[in-house]
């Protein structure tokens, strides 16, 4: 949590914007948050001193390099995170004791149970209501999730939504065991059996967010877990 007490809401707005966008200049932040460039630079200086953000120089044309700001690991930890190093240690012990294959089976079973829980909560509503409900469930678990309707590709596709998660509530686990992300994709497919679910962004690949393209397919028949 931030130690500074000066205008914490503005500083939190800066952190949230950087979490969503990945990078931003001081000028961009000033415009988005509607405060003066001088004030935004004071906030940025404070946040850098607290090691919540860092900057890097990026050459833009023939002018002077621009400073672009991004979150540090400490800055990302400012946001809710339900899992800690104990989970990684426990999974490591399981892998050593039971073997990778059995541990993978255990992880898959966990995601299957969570998928059933989600399905029970979301019911058989229209897709727009199900994805909105899914976002609320993910937010309650510590994910900074949001969803937007997008234009589908292809004439055979129905409704299409992009589910974005700007942080990962299990990032510590995912860094050590990337296979959990594969099970997460399988979980979304099980929750939405009448849809095609594709991963479009992945933090493990260096992106600053995870994204899933959810497309309703009229040819798919609902199945029961």
From TrEMBL:
Domain of life assignment: Bacteria
Residues covered by the HTH deoR-type domain: 7-67
A Pfam family annotated for this UniProt entry: HTH_24
UniProt-listed InterPro entries: ArsR-like_HTH, DeoR_HTH, SUF_FeS_clus_asmb_SufR_cyano, WH-like_DNA-bd_sf, WH_DNA-bd_sf
Record keywords: Transcription, Transcription regulation
Keyword Metal-binding: no
CDD domains, per the entry: HTH_ARSR
UniProt-recorded name of the protein: Iron-sulfur cluster biosynthesis transcriptional regulator SufR
UniProt organism field: Laspinema palackyanum D2a
